[in-house]
Amino acid sequence: MPENPTPEIIEPEGAAQRIRSGKVSTRKIEHYVARLEDTPLQDVDKVDESAVPLSMWAQAWRSLRKQPLFIISAILILLVIAVAVFPQLFTHTDPTSCTLSNARKGPAAGHPLGFTFQGCDIYARIIFGARASVLVGLFTTIFVVIIGGALGALAGYYGGWLDAVLARITDIFFALPLILGAIIIMQLPAFRDNKSIWTVIITLTIFGWPQLARITRGAVIEAKNSDYVMASRALGLSKFKTLVKHVVPNSLAPIIVIATISLGIYIVAEATLSFLGVGLPPSIMSWGNDIASAQISLRNNPAILMWPALALSVTVLSFIMLGDAVRDALDPKSRKG
Amino acid sequence: MSTFDADRPLLEIKDLAITFNTPEGPVYAVRNAHLSIMPGETVAIVGESGSGKSTTALSAIGLLPGNGKVTGGQIIFDGEDITNVSDKRIIELRGNSIGMVPQDPMSNLNPVWKIGFQVKETLKANGLAGDNAKERVAEVLAEAGLPNAATRANQYPHEFSGGMRQRALIAIGLACRPRLLIADEPTSALDVTVQQQILDHLERLTTELGTAVLLITHDLGLAAERAEKVVVMYKGQVVESGPALEILRNPKHPYTQRLVASAPSLASKRLQTHSLNEAVEANAVEKPVHSKAGDDVLEIKNLTKVFKLRKSLGKSIDFTAVDDVTFSVKRGTTTAIVGESGSGKSTVAQMVLNLLKPTAGTISFDGMVMNEQPESELFKFRRRVQPIFQDPYGSLDPMYSIYRTIEEPLRIHGMGDSKSRQNRVKELLSHVSMPSSTMYRFPNELSGGQRQRIAIARALALQPEVIICDEAVSALDVLVQAQILNLLNELQKNLGLTYLFITHDLAVVRQIADDVCVMQHGKIVEHSSTDEVFNNPQQEYTRNLLGAIPGATLLI
Predict the structure, then answer these.
(1) CATH classification of B1-97+179-250, choosing from 3.40.50.300, 3.10.180.10, 3.40.50.460, 3.30.420.40?
(2) What residue segments make up the domains of chain B, in order of their start?
(3) Is the dihedral of CA B420, B424, B425, B429 positive or negative?
């Protein structure tokens, strides 16, 4: 408790002792009483039983489903997921059957976007490349939420040395640029020789968890000081159970928002790493690899690079828009007035 | 400035209607409001939260929030219709002709500027700074009752206490000698003794300057004591207006009657002078009578809590929040701990709940020293002692439905199966007069008073013997507050509960407590029965506290 540098009581004590009798005006003041019909008296603190009960999530859903931003991004994301799961539904062309004689040719019947430098169908490669991007984004997000969320929640809730150690570790990770760090990790023999989707996911998780740990820590610190946490402790709930049952559920909103936005960012990171040649191996079809191999024909046939880049941008933008819409729904205060 | 005319109202509001546009459709915040303020007069608007009292006052200086609009009626200031006047004219009027003292002294001063600069800003904006701005600033601050004004002007807001900040805000409001000062709950965030001083000072100052004051408050006692005229608002409408003392002594509208009956500062006297039945009908609190034969269920001996305040690396100073506190609570009675902010009363409550380890001293519950018991013994103790907290918005988990909230204690203590727990939840809801359909709802759908009922139901779930109410009614409107106090009294009668009631409000204490401990700076300065403390206070501090209850002397 801070000390008051200035006194609260300023006047001499005696001044408080006079009897106060109220003021009487010299003017004539009319005594007006409203008619009871115009101002009906209602029950004190009446319970409104007519409305449908709504949890916080249900309320968020209600405001969410009316937002155009949410509808557009949700449709796009569902489409991308459908493409990733069932690519065969969207194209019958085999993306790996490439004929060099078709190289860099423009759109043709059955090949709406034309052909790459290697003579592969661009449209089919985009469709089949979605899976790698979505898998990397999804699994990185899941691992980041589990690791970052758990560490952040424990550090924020228990504080003390655990918190101090975690804060320093996250500082170290924040100081390392993602791309530079990822290049170094991907060059480690264990990673370099086994390049796969999983090596990319592990690398991105290593650099992604500190951000989520910080967000979770902040949300948990805010929630742990609430009266309902103290009330549960007074009921005899153990400290850890209070964390699991009350503190964590009340800290979920910012985690969900950040996780949604990060999913898009991880997809970009995967494309960046693949572009630089340290991400997915060339044997795996991905947008990043396609963009990288389209570099050589950029000047003459920019369309080869443009299409996978467009697919990547739209997907990432949808996740970021979804995150924004969810943030608005969960925390109406942050909405710009 | 226009000519001074003592018979023409300074501010007149006629048939005012204000509508807010919200995503859920228009909200008619104010309808048919009318009031008039004569030059030099003090008028108070009284109403509970959401009654439209602040909205009405803010409309007079064009400070309605962006989605609010005057949709009907007239606002006339000194003969000039300013209802739909240009922004330029309103800005001319602000400060110069109409001043404003906002509610929260903590957030209404800019923390990065010195106090003096913020006063000078006001003077400059109204072209009154002149050549000797510095002296003028000091003068204005000194008027508002700040000692060493010239030095104080060079300090930042964080160096000021709450009362001092409010004085600085009053200085800013009156700096340009406005003819009307709008004071929006100017002292609601302050302790009663500070509140009294500041209002006394404001009254003296405005009388000297001949400034009319529009005082907005939720406290009828305070309004009646400080204003010549009182306007009572309810659900956006003016239900009654007239001479302050007349309204207080002879309320005509049923809402005003309820308000007078429920106001703790007035009711505490009223209980002695008026018949109980009349008071009960109008939602007043009926104080129960307890026999003093019971044993001591709680015994607190030499309780001390020292906090270490970190000063710099490795160094800390001790701060004694609770200092050698000894008292006991008789079974089936209510003991109140009263004190101003920082007196250590809530720290005592947390230690009694065993949520905070005392530095020294013992807490015995039913003859057993609790603060040295292992966690397993405490678990049994927790069943028998339950808390109710102040903030009804913070004490219920927003993620839990009402059913889960009330069921949680039963579940933790493994009582009954899901069927019997459901019945118990229904029974508890009926104890606190809530319909059983409430159990499917969530806290965000309930009002503050209703949430507090749910908190009470949860506290009762384990059939405790002692309930610790930490400012349990302080955040509620008077009518709801009276309702909750009556509920607590009734539950005490039916279930034989013992209450330890922590509060800053002496008036509430009189309504429900059998014994009172008055705390100051961590020490108990007076400990006696309620009647004894109120009728024959032994300490200067207690007398000051009692004297500062607004309106306490008006209803005799």
Answers:
(1) 3.40.50.300
(2) 1-97+179-250, 109-177, 253-284, 331-547
(3) positive
Of A183, A137, A140, residue with least CA distance to A275: A183
Full DSSP string of B337-348: EEE-TTSSHHHH
User: Chain A residue with minimal CA distance to B341?
Assistant: A1
Tens-place pLDDT, residues A232-256 = 888 888 889 999 999 999 898 889 9
Question: Which range scores top for mean pLDDT: A197-211, B93-107, B126-140?
Answer: A197-211
What ipTM goes with this model? 0.76
- Chain B partners of A41 at a C-beta cutoff of 8 Å? 254-255, 258
Identify the segments of chain A with pLDDT beneath 70.
1-21, 332-337
Nearest CA in chain B to A21: B554
- C-alpha to C-alpha distance for B338 and B518, rounded to whole angstroms: 5
A251 touches chain B (CB under 8 A): no
Please give the Cα distance from B29 to B319 (Å, whole number): 47
Q: Does A172 touch chain B (CB under 8 A)?
A: no
* Cα gap B537→A17, rounded to integer Å: 14
Which domains are present in chain A? 123-334 (1.10.3720.10)
User: Quick check: A31 contacting B, CB < 8 Å?
Assistant: yes
B212 within 8 A of B41, measured Cβ to Cβ:
yes
The CATH homologous superfamily for domain B331-547 is P-loop containing nucleotide triphosphate hydrolases (3.40.50.300)
Judged by CB atoms closer than 8 Å, whether chains meet at A234 and B387 is answered as yes
Global confidence as pTM: 0.81
Inter-residue contact B429 to B438 (CB < 8 Å): yes
Instruction: Point out the least confidently predicted range of B21-30, B207-216, B417-426.
Output: B21-30
